[in-house]
Amino acid sequence: MKTFTLPGTDLTVPNVVLGVMRIEDKTDEEVRTLVGTAMDSGITFFDHADVYGSDVHGCERRFAEAMRWTSSEREQVVLQTKAGIVPEGPYFDYSHEHLVRSVEGSLAALGTDWIDILLLHRPDALVEPEEVARAFDDLAAAGKVRHFGVSNHTPGQIELLRRSVQQPLVANQLQLSVTHAPLVAQGVAANMQALDQSISRDVGTLDYCRLHDITVQAWSPFQAGFFTGVFLGSPDYPELNAVIDRLAAQYDVPAIAIATAWITRHPAQMQVVLGTTTPERVAGAALGSDVPLTRAEWYEMFRAAGYTVP
Ligand SMILES: NC(=O)c1ccc[n+]([C@@H]2O[C@H](COP(=O)([O-])OP(=O)(O)OC[C@H]3O[C@@H](n4cnc5c(N)ncnc54)[C@H](OP(=O)(O)O)[C@@H]3O)[C@@H](O)[C@H]2O)c1
């Protein structure tokens, strides 16, 4: 497993991490096997959110109840969670009161004294940057949160926060898979008239994050679209799966490792946030941590996924 020091922190992190959005119905034993398999593969970083699960903090609680880590075991892992979404509504809330209350709830549910990284989950149109800054200062001063970041944020939204927030924003978690790649695809087809791919939906988010040492974390790395099912093995993507299967045989890894490597191969040094609850898939994806796809292979997958290389 490839690891690196997450810029803006003192944390050594793997480039493949486990998201636990889907563990709510898993038994203690299933969660322990899933997490144990991840850790055996070098995945020591777990991505949570207050809203994962049918009850607020549900998945965080399920995770902690199953793992029951000692304090020394807790120190060996990185726990990241998110705040800012209010599920009833739904709406977004970056107020001081909501952010602090959410973190208190996450600490209780996770059974820990600190969150390693807190992400603002989805942009709040009514954000008051000074209020976010005050919440971050209070959470940092109390030792409740060590590092901060964002998710699904544009460069402008990050700039607005950065004018008030003292702490570095170390991560931006964004949807990215080879079939859902507006983040990278627009730049490849810049300046093309009458091509949908040329429309900028992210206003240069990837380049901005690279310029500012903000680590991109790719969520839904195997979903074809927005929770539409995975492209791996899907009859909707015969050409892509043929390329993936050929590369999997060539590198002697499972197909899921090649899909992972399409993201880890990118020089932005992204982290892939897995969401599978199947231990074998976690172990297989981890093998994609440092598969050295060539430029030709990377672009072949991109074209086979339906993107244009002008
Ligand atoms: N920041 C955000 O806004 C945001 C949004 C969504 C998610 N996330 C984070 O990203 C993580 C990953 O999201 P995701 O779960 O949508 O991503 P994913 O890893 O692309 O999808 C995993 C889902 O696909 C299923 N699946 C079916 N066939 C599969 C195959 N061959 N290989 C792998 N998975 C297969 C899995 O089922 P099994 O479990 O049965 O294997 C699981 O339900 C979440 O856990 C969460 O931490 C963040």
Write the layout of secondary structure elements.
Blueprint: E1 3-5, E2 12-14, E3 16-19, H1 28-40, E4 45-47, H2 58-67, H3 71-75, E5 78-83, E6 85-86, E7 91-92, H4 96-110, E8 115-120, H5 129-141, E9 145-151, H6 155-164, E10 169-175, H7 182-188, H8 205-211, E11 215-219, H9 238-251, H10 255-264, E12 271-274, H11 279-286, H12 295-304
Parallel strand pairs: 3-4, 3-12, 4-5, 5-8, 8-9, 9-10, 10-11, 11-12
Antiparallel strand pairs: 1-2, 6-7
Helix pairs in contact: 1-2, 1-11, 2-4, 4-5, 5-6, 9-10, 9-12, 10-11
The protein binds NADP nicotinamide-adenine-dinucleotide phosphate.
NADP nicotinamide-adenine-dinucleotide phosphate (NAP) binds at residues 19-22, 47, 151-152, 173, 219-223, 230, 232-233, 256, 273-278, 281.
Q: Characterize the largest beta sheet: strand count, sense, and whether it forms a barrel.
A: 8 strands, parallel, barrel
Low-pLDDT sequence parts: none
Number of strands: 12
In terms of structural class, how would the helical and strand content be classed?
Answer: alpha/beta
Corresponding CATH superfamily: NADP-dependent oxidoreductase domain
Strand content: 15-25%
Main sheet strand line-up:
3-4-5-8-9-10-11-12
Shape: globular
Hetero groups in this structure are: NADP nicotinamide-adenine-dinucleotide phosphate
- CATH first level: which class? Alpha Beta
CATH topology: TIM Barrel
CATH architecture: Alpha-Beta Barrel
The residue fraction in helices comes out at 25-40%
Domain NADP-dependent oxidoreductase: 16-298
Pfam families: Aldo_ket_red
Protein name: Aldo/keto reductase
GO cellular component, one term: cytosol
